[in-house]
Specification:
Blueprint: H1 6-26, H2 30-38, H3 44-64, H4 68-77, H5 79-92, H6 101-120, H7 133-150, H8 154-163, H9 168-193, H10 198-206, H11 208-223, H12 227-251
């Protein structure tokens, strides 16, 4: 447990609330906001450990919000993407020492940022359902590869779903499934590594309340969005996520 003053605990709660709100609104970016925010005054290991339990809880809610049947139906529609991501995470995790993190952040961040800004500028890059494999397998390979190396597979997943022009409710559900399966793997790995223990687990559990409060506020906002606004907000958050990766690649 980090020893923090009351004012810093309030900052922790505010960051967690914001991360949950964005997650509830667009379905991703919780790790980016939480780890970047907490990492500015806490050890990175503590920030990552704090992320684990809220990630499990929020993705479970996101995946199963409309029931188990709806989640299974979405999983069947996108089973190739989910399967390839998980296989690539397992494989690429074995070569994590072979690449510098900065290089990887740039490799992910530059194309994601360009995609988001081009889409926001009015260039619509779409893939038809009949030709889903054109985007599905390559982006699943990228998402899984980067996920195993850096724990980041959100932006390629959003890019894939956005290119398919996936309906808002379906996109939120698929993101919850993909991130949720990965979060289980990540949590088990950190239990084994010792990063998630009694002390850091308590800190992670304390973050659940503000993050879930933010999540439900974000869901209320998301329910009021039509597909066009949802897509635009998603692209804005994706652009910010891409720029953050570029920043980490250039400046560490």
């Amino acid at each position: 447990m980090p020893e923090l003053s009351i004012s810093l605990w309030l900052v922790v709660a505010a960051i967690a609330l914001l991360a949950g709100f964005v997650k509830g609104t667009v379905g991703f970016a919780l790790p980016m906001i939480l780890v970047s925010g907490l990492g500015s005054f806490l050890p990175p290991e503590t920030a990552i450990a704090g992320l684990l339990l809220p990630t499990l809880a929020t993705n479970a809610f996101q995946a199963f919000r409309d029931g188990v049947g709806a989640a299974l139906a979405s999983a069947r529609r996108h089973w190739r993407f989910v399967l390839v991501v998980m296989i690539m995470i397992a494989l690429s995790a074995q070569i994590v020492v072979a690449l510098r993190a900065e290089t990887l952040f740039l490799v992910i961040g530059v194309p994601v940022t360009l995609f988001a800004f081009l889409q926001l500028a009015g260039l619509r890059l779409r893939v038809s359902r009949a030709r889903r494999w054109v985007a599905e397998v390559p982006l699943a390979l990228v998402a899984g590869f980067t996920g195993g190396l850096s724990g980041i597979w959100g932006p390629p997943t959003v890019l894939y779903l956005t290119a398919l022009d996936t309906p808002r409710v379906e996109q939120m559900r698929v993101q919850g499934i993909v991130y949720g399966v990965g979060a289980v793997v990540l949590t088990l790995a950190h239990i084994r590594s010792g990063l998630l223990n009694a002390e850091t687990g308590t800190f992670s559990a304390l973050l659940l309340a503000p993050i879930l409060a933010g999540l439900f506020l974000g869901v209320a906002v998301q329910d009021r969005l039509d597909q066009i606004r949802f897509r635009r907000i998603t692209l804005v958050v994706l652009a910010v996520a891409g720029l953050n990766l570029v920043r980490r690649g250039l400046f560490g």
